[in-house]
Amino acid sequence: MATGTAAALDQLRTIFPNKVVTPDIESEYQAAVATPWSQTCWTPAAGYMYLSNVQELTETLAIVKKTGVKFTIRTTGHNPNVGFSSADKTAVVLDIRQLQSKELGSDGVARIGSGSTWGEVYAWLEKQKLSAIGGRDQQVGLGGFLLGGGMGALPNLYGLGADGVRNFEVLLADGRLVNANAKENADLYRALKGGGSNFGIVTRFDLDTHPLINVQYTINLYNPEDYVEINKATMAIQNAMENDPKGGLFTNSNNGFVAVGLLYGDTPSERPSVFKPFHNLKSLVTTESKKRAICTITTKVSQELYDDVYKSWTEVCKSLPTDYVLHYTIQPMGKAGVQAGKDRGENIMGHESIPQCWWVFTCEWPQEASDDAAAQKAVDTIAERAQLLAKEKRALLDFKCMSFATASQTVLGSYGADNIKRMQETAAKYDPEGVFQKLQNGGFLLRDNI
Length: 450
Ligand SMILES: Cc1cc2nc3c(=O)[nH]c(=O)nc-3n(C[C@H](O)[C@H](O)[C@H](O)COP(=O)(O)OP(=O)(O)OC[C@H]3O[C@@H](n4cnc5c(N)ncnc54)[C@H](O)[C@@H]3O)c2cc1C
Prior knowledge:
Layout: H1 5-15, E1 20-21, H2 26-33, E2 47-50, H3 54-67, E3 70-74, E4 91-95, E5 102-104, E6 109-113, H4 118-126, E7 130-131, H5 142-147, H6 155-158, E8 165-171, E9 177-181, H7 186-192, E10 201-208, E11 210-211, E12 216-222, H8 227-241, E13 247-253, E14 258-264, H9 276-279, E15 284-285, E16 291-300, H10 303-317, E17 325-333, H11 335-343, E18 356-365, H12 372-392, E19 396-397, H13 417-430, H14 435-438
Helix pairs in contact: 1-3, 8-10, 10-12
The protein binds flavin-adenine dinucleotide.
């Protein structure tokens, strides 16, 4: 039997003549390469397969298995780690964006094809005066966001995106299409809530919906020289959020400004008191690059740490060319958000029940600039320094959020020994031949991420 990339593409072309894009179809191929949101992932693959439905995906996966070709699953390509939803000439990209079904059950559960973006889902649900826990950016896809945990705008009010999944419809390596929920395949259900693409391809997410609420959303820009007061206000809000889960916050230290997102899951006539610490700051100022590198750590809440990281960040910024922007964001996660996950049957990420900060360090730089390594080095350096500072202050937590991690970070290994064992057992049970470990091109995979 013929195996390898060429054999796989031949077989796919025979069965699906109009769905395979290879380098000989020049313009379509270039468009396929340049589809990911993250330009770091514009790497030419051996071929691109555009799947319209689950049947086609099932047949494609069977050919992948038979020929032993490497593959990767792609929706929007928002994950900037090279090879996670992209590939080189040795592998085939399975593009599932056309899995677009949307159905609202009488139980209020929204059954949504895994090719959708959050913008599409929000617009559709809004017509029914409903919403779901999704990404803060409309272009992000459901797949990577929900399988990686998923930090929404108001994590303490509803928990993480993964905790809002009532059921996953999953295509397993042996071709079976199964449901994973609290009653059926419960081990798989839990493993998928943060365990990434280790167990199968999710074809549909069934999501809890919430009545549409009006949300206050302000982004203020502050003068970075005021960083001590900004960090003090950030801390105060994080503390206040422990008592008022309607509050949401991000503090993004950027090139020349600090952007603070103040979100509130209600529209009281008075400004929410939870945000008071930011109202009086005097440093308020009045505002697309897509090549990016990221890195993450998780810490306890500590003003001293926030201030020291800020100082360290200003130092690292100096090492970069002027058109490279290194910035970082403080993302609070509170006890209520962690509890929401526990109340919904536990996820696989092993969060501690304490107020915490999910940091994301990001570098963005122009497509034409060639020194990609400098950007990655900058995020790695600031993340390492922040980690050291946190360790010194006994504020470092193990958890690393998949959505914000760079490829070399041990994400699955940060979930704790019990959860690692759970994921390994689940993978062995649902994918005994190890197809998702051996043939998947990249990702935070059990084969090398524990
Ligand atoms: C501008 C921007 C804003 C963001 N905002 C947020 C935010 O508010 N909150 C947050 O938590 N994260 C956020 N992220 C991070 C984002 O959630 C991750 O990058 C996520 O991996 C993107 O998922 P995707 O499906 O859109 O992208 P892709 O890059 O296509 O997929 C990401 C990974 O998931 C796998 N995958 C995708 N779909 C499936 C599936 N159905 N079955 C199995 N595996 C699958 C892919 O193989 C790949 O490994 C943001 C990122 C960017 C660039």
